[in-house]
Specification:
Length: 68
């Protein structure tokens, strides 16, 4: 658990250096959006009969206006 926290904090600080006006909430949103994109790509590999609706997956993250 400690290493997870360490690496996540390190990634956040790197992101913050590139986005000096960023917030933890904005960082979390961006990570969630990237995760949702990857999940969507992986889920598209599933057979159509077991693949969830893409709108349901995107709904888990919300949209960018939820973060601002």
């Amino acid at each position: 658990m400690g290493s997870l926290i360490y690496f996540e904090e390190r990634d956040y600080k790197e992101w913050l250096a590139e986005n000096p006006d960023g917030t933890r909430e904005r960082y979390a949103y961006e990570i969630a959006a990237i995760t949702a994109e990857v999940m969507d790509e992986v889920l598209q590999e599933l057979p159509a009969r077991v693949r969830p609706d893409p709108d349901n997956v995107k709904g888990l993250v919300g949209d960018e206006s939820d973060c601002m």
